[in-house]
Structure formats: C-alpha cells, structure tokens
Amino acid sequence: EAGVAQSPRYKIIEKRQSVAFWCNPISGHATLYWYQQILGQGPKLLIQFQNNGVVDDSQLPKDRFSAERLKGVDSTLKIQPAKLEDSAVYLCASSLGRGVQETQYFGPGTRLLVL
Amino acid sequence: DAKTTQPPSMDCAEGRAANLPCNHSTISGNEYVYWYRQIHSQGPQYIIHGLKNNETNEMASLIITEDRKSSTLILPHATLRDTAVYYCIVRVGNAGGTSYGKLTFGQGTILTVHP
Description:
A: mainly beta; seven-stranded mixed sheet; 0% helix; globular; B: mainly beta; five-stranded mixed sheet
C-alpha cells in the first residue's frame, strides 16, 4: 500500500513570508497528525485530526500556524508569517482511527528553512 | 503520560545483538511502552509495543521488567541499516482528554552499528 505522502520535501523562505505544506494520508486512515521536529529533538505533536475534526491542537501556535482537513482526507499546514525558529522538519502521520493503540505511519517530512 | 529516560548514544557491532534500555519509573497501569526509530532523513517508523508481557515481532523483541519500570529493546542481529535514533515512548492505553492516541517523543538513543 502507498505510504503517507508529503510535499514539498524541501522549502526555503525568508522570515515573515508564508508557507504551506501538504499531506495525503494512507487510504482509509481517519486520523491525521502533524508534528514539528526541530534539529536534535524528537517530533512534537502540533495538531491531530479525526476525520475533518480537530482532536488536539494544544501545542499549535495558533497566532501563526493553521491547519485544515476539509474533506477528511488530505490536509494542509500553513505558517503565516514564518519566524526563524520555525525552521524544522514538519512530519505528517496517519492511523486508522479506530483505537488509541494504533500504529502511526509517518511520511518523509518537509524540511523548512527560514532565513 | 509518563516520561522516559534513554542513554543518548550507543554503539553496536554488525551481526551482534543491540540492547537498548529505557527507564519509565512513573509508568501507570494503563500505559503501554512503544518503540519507534528514525533513520536519517526519514519519518519515524513503528517497531514494537507492549503492556507487561514480553513481545517479539519480525523486527525486534521487547523485554519489560516485572515492575514495568524499565524495558529493553533487542535487535537480535544488528545490521548497518539499523543505525538510527530509537525512541522509547510511554503512551496511555485508553481514550480521554488530550492524550488520545498521542505520541510524546523524547530525544531518544542514537544507535550506531559498526562494520
């Protein structure tokens, strides 16, 4: 089966610009996650969707970050305006959404550099 | 979720068993121990998980102490492709609040497999 797809793989922008990342989860997966991974650290959950509803966005900096999953399938994560400290890898993951002990499958990530 | 403590780095010779320790002394009765790994420039990959019994799959074995305060991930015959960051994660086993399905990553153990 196809894995989690993300695009672009790399993005370089200047601070105060906006940027958007796209994620297509594994077919049939109801739960979708966005993580931020700063260099040298483990991934940190930003937001979790169950179908097109938000389950947890407690660690999403809502003044500049937004995410949507309008049709319950693919999702976009946006940063506007970007700051230098947003330089990181943004990982998307998905799971079936039928129980809390499910395996999460991760995409390859989008590497963002803010100059 | 309970916190975990892992050594920052370990080495292993190719073909030998790699034993990665994890301490989780504050684990609760409904919390599972999960292991993920992240190979350079890839997203994290699920390895194995367990509650209190030892578990084995095609990738690894998980040994959990009787008091559940620590565990060891065993890669029986390490190869160069097993070089990665290994994350030990304690994850709640029932839905509720913001912990539903959430993976909280620490900094993990960098395992380097040498020829």
